[in-house]
Amino acid sequence: MIRIYQEADYAAMSRRAAAVIAAEVIRNPACVLGLATGSTPIGAYEQLAAWNREGLLSFKEVRSVNLDEYKGLPGTHDQSYRYFMNTHLFDHVDIDPANTHVPDGLAADPAAECARYDDLVASMGYADLQLLGLGNNGHIGFNEPCDCFVRETHVVDLTQSTIDANARFFASAGDVPRQALTMGIGCIMAARWVLLIASGEAKAEALYRMICGPITPACPASILQLHGDVVVVGDRAALEKVVAAGVSVCE
Known about the structure:
CATH class: Alpha Beta
CATH architecture: 3-Layer(aba) Sandwich
Distance between the termini: 18 Å
Number of helices: 8
CATH topology: Rossmann fold
Number of domains: 1
Strand content: 15-25%
Structural class: alpha/beta
Radius of gyration: 17 Å
């Protein structure tokens, strides 16, 4: 089941998403949060940090697992996803750093690291809430469009569209890593429930294909149609094609 909430703009979408995450933390202070990176969740993370500073929310017992990490980047690199999470959330809330988990992009044996990460997530009972962004090509995590859904955490070759989309964060497109370690579809689908957020016109086609299109690995996010509990929070621009197709949304 997919429930869809439409907000006016990015700021409103971010606040709604933060409220959903905060509700999960309040409901279960020791919850496991599956977290995402990229530009879309930054506003939600800023709101969560503000509520933490105000004493309205605590992450002291929360554990987190991140979706992915660039292969070849250390956690200290300013474009690594460990660095992103520290900068945008972990350093600003009262979470125990030992309870935050990101794949090791420098692992000497990437396959072994992927297996270790799968075992770790399973040992935590999988995510209570899995936060997802949405790639312009329909990817979730770094599960790129391909011929099949990959269940396990794995090393993926990034598509050119993903490289191009991420190039703005690097000095040049040539500096963008070509591979990443990403949580597989199996771990994502094992989450108790999923929160997917999307903002902007550039996400409208992918969001439409995710909700209204066929279930196909050509649009990895489409598999969420099979999950029992998915909440989508998008702004008007991102949901334009979904609304035009007559799909019911909540304001």
